[in-house]
């Protein structure tokens, strides 16, 4: 045990992991914990105040991640595949949206077979309520803020940070997406499996495209599409 703590290499690894651990603890852990002990209002996106508050909270959090990445002289945003948006990112994000649904629909079908009493399993996010079309523009911004915040932290920052410590691509992907899915484990095994599946797909797409914008926009579009479906009364 003493040899482990005195090892220069292990010290570097622990120091490298301390930063993402603390950042996760500040940005995401409180939300993960609170979701399990208090009920989430299904109609919260119908509140103008909630959307404004969320945006002005999420944007500084996103900027903090980017600042922490870029403040160290030995690394840059480019090392985490965070760069300028390109023309191809938008059409690819639409394919990402389709891919997300292709990931969760089989899980929903399996869940319906195992537990037929559970309704609306084909669309992850069942239970959301939204009907005020006047708020669609600001809700869209909220969804995009979520997409960028979560993808830049989990898929770019954390995923790449784990690999930089010597962890392989697959172990890093498993660790990141199990953690990502655990944010919805309070909703049950389906929500955990669906979220983790989305995470693995977006991680694969990120590795292939090396574009944070493709997966961030796709993530945001998925969140927005769930609320649009909620407007139809299908959820």
From TrEMBL:
Q: Which UniProt keywords apply?
A: Membrane, Transmembrane, Transmembrane helix
UniProt xrefs under InterPro entries: Rce1/LyrA-like_dom (IPR003675)
Q: Molecular function (GO) terms listed?
A: endopeptidase activity
Q: Which GO terms describe its biological process?
A: CAAX-box protein maturation
The residue ranges crossing the membrane are 48-69, 94-114, 134-154, 166-183, 189-207, 214-234
Q: Provide the coiled-coil residue spans.
A: none
Q: What are the residue boundaries of the CAAX prenyl protease 2/Lysostaphin resistance protein A-like domain, all occurrences included?
A: 135-224
Q: What is this protein called?
A: Type II CAAX endopeptidase family protein
Q: Which organism is it from?
A: Candidatus Thalassospirochaeta sargassi
């Amino acid at each position: 045990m003493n040899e482990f703590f005195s090892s220069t290499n292990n010290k570097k690894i622990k120091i490298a992991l301390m930063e993402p651990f603390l950042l996760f603890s500040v940005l995401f852990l409180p939300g993960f914990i609170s979701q399990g002990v208090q009920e989430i209002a299904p109609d919260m996106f119908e509140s103008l105040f909630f959307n404004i508050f969320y945006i002005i909270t999420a944007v500084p959090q996103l900027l903090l991640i980017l600042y922490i990445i870029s403040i160290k002289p030995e690394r840059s945003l480019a090392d985490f595949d965070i760069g300028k948006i390109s023309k191809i990112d938008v059409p690819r994000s639409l394919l990402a949206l389709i891919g997300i649904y292709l990931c969760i629909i089989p899980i929903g079908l399996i869940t319906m077979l195992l537990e037929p009493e559970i309704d609306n399993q084909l669309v992850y996010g069942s239970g959301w309520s939204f009907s005020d079309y006047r708020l669609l523009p600001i809700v869209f911004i909220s969804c995009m803020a979520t997409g960028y915040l979560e993808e830049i932290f989990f898929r770019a920052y954390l995923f790449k940070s784990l690999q930089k410590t010597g962890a392989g691509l697959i172990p890093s992907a498993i660790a990141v997406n199990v953690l990502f899915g655990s944010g919805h484990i309070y909703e049950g095994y389906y929500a955990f499996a669906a979220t983790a599946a989305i995470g693995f797909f977006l991680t694969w797409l990120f590795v292939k495209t090396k574009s944070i914008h493709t997966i961030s926009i796709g993530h945001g579009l998925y969140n927005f599409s769930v609320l649009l479906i909620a407007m139809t009364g299908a959820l």
